[in-house]
Write a structure and sequence with these properties.
binds magnesium ion; alpha+beta; 50% helix; binds adenosine-5'-diphosphate; eleven-stranded mixed beta sheet; single chain; three-stranded antiparallel beta sheet; elongated
């Protein structure tokens, strides 16, 4: 039950707020029952409301409810007369249509095109109608609608004496003959009585427009001070009002009548003292209504105004040769009524978007009361006598035009911010209580829904940090405010970390903005990076050691990484000197570039480096590159590779170079021996052939001379015998030499393999050395020095710069990042490494001191002593071959 009430409150408040405040974010319907969410909603509301309270201009919020379009109601009231022109004025049975028939003017002659018949269809013709009936017909609905928030305008139009004032005000001395105005006031107060649920306030004002001047007919009241400045018509989004016009609050009918009479009296007095004809002024009596519901939760209220307009006489005074004051009056009246007519014609024309309201005071003052959003009624007062027929026709034409005008009555709905805040505060308190009940039912004690203080926020920050470090497994959810604060603190921690990382990287690198095309094209021109921002020659942007982030990699915030890249490059440009841009190929330190290819097998290592250099089509050799000393200052331009290679062979690479040279000389020596053996074999073969030939010759001679046999044994001469011995000896020699040659060939093949491996290592070590000597940031050199935990060069720079990892961790990470088949192949390579470690143990055991291996730099750099085929290349071939030969001899 409580939940239902809560939800109801929640939804109603939400919908009010949603429409009034246009709350962003919205509330998910399925989540609305959750007490925590509800609490959060309240808190959001609280925020919104306090914002609203702070806002000076948010006192009132205006809303309107659009209605449907409807036509202006136009009525005709005929002044009672004993001399009614029955022949000329005829009413149809529908009580709406007036037919006017005019006798032809005989003076116009035989050919007379004068129009003589008119028909006007209106909303009702009021003939001999009582004041009561007129009010019921004309005004009752408009007034009652005003209390619902619709503006209304009732206007009397017609020539002087036709009964406009009688209709509007009535006979003030006779209650029965009172007009629309007092009746309207009566109705308003009656309706107020009938609506106890609403607090309705009534205010009135009485304005007179005479010769385009504004007069306040209620300014004579003692509490209204004399107006210092003349009244002006002011427009604002809420409508049109007369600045300086007194508006009087009337709490009861009697007060309202007093005000009406005061105005009427002033009107009459003015006509005497100012010598003005009251029928030549326009009078606008306005009743302002404001209706508020007495229900506290309803902040909505409606406002409206009823304009009761008694227009000046519409007769064309100009015709009657008036002069002086009368002429002036006539001019103004004609003007204002003609502007009123123009405005009404424009209002009736759907295509017109501009209505000339501001041409005169009358239309300007009535701007929001003519057409627009109000209920509008026109009473056209006419005479029934034949003598006034022309003016009657003119008045009826005006009425017909008015009938064409459509309006769209709209409720003037407003919201009282102050009242709304009060209501919401009440609602909030109620919902907090509701929430407390929910919490206690759910055994959630001590849940605080108030805004967090600094200590609580600091605690959340610490929780977030511990969570990120992994020392806190979970952050318990308490309420929505806490969840939001957790997110906030995540953001705070993240941005702090970003700043830290950025400042660390800034100290080390220069980054380039991806959008800084000038800088990018400059570095591309310099061959430093390719179009994607990768280092030139770098496979997949995974270059070792340089730490230049490719444009496409986004380790953190995109813009920040860009910046860093730019700075790194610009600072490197500073270091290298702007006039000597780096060659991309000189930077190329990746192993892929210096891998041995089959065609280069027999080539010298130096040749290969030179070839590498030549095919790279880069800058001319920097012949003046300084030689590297013990730890010489980094040269402004990295030396050309062939030059650097010479340095390398004399320094870091001297040992491997020496072994490589020795191995190579052994290989050459074996090749030479093989060649000599081949020559010897060929010579023996030739001699065998010759001996065989000689022997065959001897044999044939012997056969020709006759053979001697002794007891079945063939007797041969000495010469033949010697040839046979020689052949036998030669064949033996041949076999021995051939065996040697076969052994030599096997050795050569073996040696070739070792020399290749040795060469490969030499180049790899050179690349690493070259990279680290000229491109690894200098502050990292310390870590890479002998005795440092990291062996230079053998890991990506990104790994080197992340502190706090032990070697094994980094080893695992390296495995994961550099495995050729990606992380899925981890277990495969782990097993392989283990196997190789085992083998290395076997190698040391069996080779003993003589064959002690030097660990592969890869393993050594990770503090491991595993050795694979590499150490074999470090040894002189001679000792290996010796061992091999020993084994071979044993097996023979
Ligand atoms: P207007 O304001 O149009 O100039 P009034 O309302 O002053 O004309 O009317 C002129 C005279 O005619 C007044 O004396 C008024 O009492 C009288 N009169 C006008 N219409 C009626 C009516 N329907 N019944 C009785 N008297 C009327
Ligand atoms: Mg009048």
């Amino acid at each position: 039950m409580t939940t239902t009430i809560t939800s109801h409150h929640f939804l109603s408040t939400c919908s009010v707020l949603g429409s009034v405040l246009d709350l962003e974010g919205g509330f998910k319907r399925d989540k609305r029952h959750h007490p925590v969410l509800q609490a959060a909603c309240y808190l959001i509301w609280e925020l919104k409301l306090s914002q609203m309270m702070r806002s000076k201009n948010s006192n009132k919020h205006y809303f309107t409810k659009m209605g449907s379009r409807k036509k202006v109601h136009a009525f005709v009231r005929v002044r009672p007369t004993d001399d009614f022109a029955h022949e000329m004025i005829k009413y149809r049975d529908d009580n709406k249509t007036i037919d006017i028939h005019l006798k032809k003017d005989s003076r116009r002659g035989v050919v007379n095109n004068q129009q003589t018949d008119w028909s006007f269809k209106l909303d009702r013709v009021l003939h001999d109608a009582s004041q009561d009936l007129v009010y019921e017909t004309v005004a009752k609905d408009v007034v009652s609608q005003a209390l619902n928030g619709f503006n209304g305008t009732i206007m009397c139009y017609g020539q002087t004496g036709a009964g406009k004032t009688y209709t509007m005000t009535g006979a003030t001395e006779n209650y029965k003959h009172r007009g629309i105005l007092p009746r309207a006031l009566q109705q308003v107060f009656k309706m107020i009585e009938e609506r106890p649920t609403h607090a309705i306030t009534v205010r009135v004002s009485y304005l007179e427009i005479y010769n385009e001047s504004l007069f306040d007919l209620l300014s004579t009241l003692p509490y209204v001070g004399p107006s210092v400045t003349p009244m002006t018509i002011v427009e604002n989004p809420q409508g049109v009002f007369i600045k300086g016009l007194s508006v009087h609050l009337t709490s009861q009918e009697e007060d309202a009548f007093s005000l009406l009479f005061e105005g009427e009296t002033n009107r009459i007095i003015a006509s005497h003292t100012m010598n003005k004809n009251s029928s030549r002024s326009h009078c606008i009596f306005t009743i302002y209504v404001e209706a508020r519901s007495r229900t506290l939760s309803d902040e909505k209220y409606v406002t409206s105004k009823i304009n009761l307009v008694d227009l000046a006489g519409s007769e064309r005074l100009g015709k009657s040769r008036s002069e002086g004051r009368v002429l002036k009056e006539a001019t103004y009246i004609n003007k204002s009524l003609s502007f009123l007519e123009q405005a009404i014609i424009a209002l009736g024309d759907q295509k017109r978007d501009h209505i000339p309201f501001r041409q005169c005071k009358l239309t300007h003052a009535l701007k929001d009361s003519l057409g627009g959003n109000c209920n509008m009624v026109l009473v056209t007062n006419i005479y029934g006598e034949a003598a006034q027929l022309e003016e009657t026709l003119s008045s009826l034409r005006f009425a017909s035009r008015m009938k064409l005008v459509t309006t769209e009555p709209t409720i003037n709905e407003k919201y009282d911010a102050e009242r709304m805040v009060k209501n919401l505060e009440k609602e909030l308190a109620l919902l907090k209580q509701e929430l407390a009940i929910h919490d206690s039912l759910a055994n959630r004690t001590l849940v605080n829904y108030d805004p967090m203080d600094e200590i609580q926020i600091a605690e959340i920050n610490s929780q977030v940090r511990r969570y990120l470090e992994g020392t806190l497994e979970e952050i318990d959810i308490i309420n929505l405010r806490q969840i939001q604060e957790v997110f906030n603190q995540f953001r705070v921690v993240l941005s702090q970390q970003e700043q830290e990382v950025e400042s660390t990287l800034r100290r080390k690198y220069t980054l380039i903005d991806k959008n800084d095309y000038a800088a990018i094209s400059a570095v591309q021109k310099a061959g430093l990076v390719d179009a994607d921002g990768h280092l030139v020659g770098e496979p997949d942007g995974q270059g070792f050691g340089l730490g230049v982030a490719p444009f496409s990699t986004k380790p953190g915030k995109k813009s920040k990484s860009k910046k860093m890249f730019k700075e790194q490059l610009s600072s490197s440009a500073r270091k290298e000197g702007a006039s000597s841009p780096l060659s991309g190929k000189d930077l190329d330190v990746s192993t892929s570039k210096t891998q041995l290819t089959p065609s280069s097998k027999d080539g010298d290592v130096k040749d290969m480096v030179v070839r590498d250099r030549e095919t790279s089509n880069t800058e001319p050799l920097a012949s003046d590159s300084p030689k590297e000393e013990l730890r010489p200052p980094r040269p402004s331009t990295p030396p050309a590779k062939p030059v650097a290679f010479e340095d390398f062979k004399n320094e870091r690479g001297s040992e491997i170079n020496r072994i490589f040279k020795e191995n190579k000389s052994i290989l050459n020596e074996r090749r030479k021996r093989a060649s000599e053996t081949t020559q010897r074999i060929n010579a023996i073969k030739r001699e065998i052939d010759m001996t065989k030939e000689a022997l065959n010759l001897q044999k044939s001679l012997r056969e020709k001379q006759g053979e001697y046999e002794n007891k079945g044994l063939m007797i041969i001469d000495e010469e033949e015998f010697l040839l046979i011995l020689k052949l036998k000896d030669l064949k033996k020699q041949y076999r021995t030499e051939y065996q040697d040659l076969r052994d030599l060939r096997a050795e050569i093949q073996y040696c070739q393999h070792l020399v290749d491996q040795c060469r490969h290592r030499l180049l790899t070590e050179f690349d690493i050395w070259y990279n680290e000597s000229f491109f690894v940031p200098e502050d990292l050199q310390m870590a890479l020095k002998p005795g440092g935990s990291i062996r230079p060069g053998m890991m990506p720079l990104s790994k080197i710069v992340s502190p706090g990892e032990d070697d094994q961790d980094r080893f695992s990470q390296l495995q994961q990042t550099t495995l050729p088949e990606g992380p899925d192949s981890v277990s495969f390579y782990n097993a392989k490494v283990k196997m190789e470690q085992k083998e290395a143990g076997w190698g040391r055991q069996h080779l003993g001191g003589r064959m002690a291996c030097s660990p592969h730099p890869f393993w050594k750099s990770w503090g491991l002593s595993a050795c694979n085929s590499w150490p074999w290349t470090n040894k002189k071939l001679s000792c290996l071959l010796e061992k091999k030969n020993r084994r071979g001899r044993k097996s023979k």
